[in-house]
Amino acid sequence: MQQIELNLLFFLKVIKRHIRLFLLIHLFAVIISVIVALVLPVFYEAKVTFYPYSPEASDPRIMLNEQQEFTVFSNEDQSERFILIGKSKRVKDYLINKYNLFEKYNIDSTMGLLSRTKLYEEMQSNIKFKKGEHGAVTVSVFDRNRDTCAMLVNDVVKQIEISFNETIKDKNKKVLEVYDDQYNKMNVYIGSIKDSLKYLQSIKADAKSFVALNNQIEFAMEEFTKLKVKYETAKIISNKDLKSILVIEEATPPYRKAKPTRSVIVLGTLAFTFIGLLS
């Protein structure tokens, strides 16, 4: 402890003796840091937070099952799939084409795969995804232009929803095809029973045979009615416009810049300069 106090006193004496040089070094550091801070490009940040709806909310098999419970919104684990869609090649390529990102980020597009890899890396550094509480997903976009910044993040969210909806619609279409097949098979089965009844009537069969067939057709009609409800419900769900996310608020052009934080650059430079002199 005493050694530290002695070193500090010695350092203060050195500063006092060379105060002009000490101030000149720090003034030079401030000037350099201000120049660097002014030269660095300014970036704005726009954010959108949304809550994904649970995929079960648009699954006709689950909706028709009264004994199966489901939540309206996705949990944190399910939210990960929406983030993966946002990072997908499809969404990236959509943004590249719409905003001409090769030109925007000054990347030569003539180098094939290397060009696209560089562009993907640049996009990854400017488009961020974060999971929040209760399954929330926040998308952040950094850009030098405040208007483009807001448009980009809104488009990312829209493309996530469009891509996810297409997946759900494809799945529901397959479910509809299954119900349609079962519906048609049951219809044929009922028709065959009716034909058998007509045949029994033509040969004047005994009552026991009629009772057996009537029981079969009653059971088949009950199943047919259930299948018809499933089929019609699946058809409605497959054809309707899906809403897979709840957007809290669309992004608007940000007023303040996000980076660089010039005060931090200047103060950090001063701190490093002082520590450097101490050492």
Protein topology:
Layout: H1 2-17, H2 19-39, E1 43-52, H3 60-63, H4 76-86, H5 89-99, H6 101-104, H7 113-126, E2 127-131, E3 137-143, H8 146-202, H9 207-239, E4 245-247, E5 257-259, H10 262-278
Antiparallel strand pairs: 1-3, 1-4, 1-5, 2-3
Helix pairs in contact: 2-10, 4-8, 5-8, 8-9
Describe the protein:
The chain has 279 residues and is α+β, with helices and mostly antiparallel strands. It has 10 helices and 5 strands, in the order ααβαααααββααββα. Strands 1, 2, 3, 4 and 5 form a 5-stranded antiparallel sheet that branches. A hairpin with a 5-residue loop joins β2 and β3 (137-143). α4 packs across α8 (146-202) and α5 (89-99) crosses α8 (146-202).
Short description:
This protein has ten helices and five strands. It is of the alpha+beta class.
Using the alpha-carbon principal axes, give the shape.
elongated
As an assembly, this protein is single chain
Order of helices and strands: HHEHHHHHEEHHEEH
The tally of beta strands, per DSSP, is 5
Through-space gap between termini: 18 Å
Q: What summary fits the major beta sheet?
A: 5 strands, antiparallel
Query: Quick check: average pLDDT?
Result: 76
Poorly predicted runs of 5 or more residues: 1-6
The helix-and-strand class reads: alpha+beta
Estimate what percentage of residues fall within beta strands: 5-15%
The helix fraction, in percent, is 55-70%
Summary keywords:
alpha+beta; five-stranded antiparallel sheet; 10 helices; elongated; 279 residues
